[in-house]
Amino acid sequence: MLSRGSCASICDTNGQLLFYSGYDDDIYSILGPPFQNGEIYNSQHNTMQNGDSIVMAAWYYETVIIPFPGSDSLYVVFSTNVSGNSIKGLFYLIVDMSLNGGLGGVIQKHSTSKL
User: What is the dihedral of CA 13, 71, 104, 21, to 10 degrees?
Assistant: First the structure.
């Protein structure tokens, strides 16, 4: 993974990788803001279903993955932007690991709460 920031991963209770996030540094370097260059990768290191074009970038978009309360298969990926570009706020997406034979899929993305 070529990410300098905005990367996170989560494992199951046995320590097996479920999925992780990162961003495409080439898009960051070429296009600049606004950033929708993040990716969610499955345990086979492929982009997860609907896991492309995630609002995410370099240093100021930090990322956290947490289990969705009360669910064994849902996870929430949070990222935040505190830099000076036009996209600001708390962003989140929802991953459902019951999809694609356990490799997961993003079922909701680009949800935001303005800061």
Answer: -70
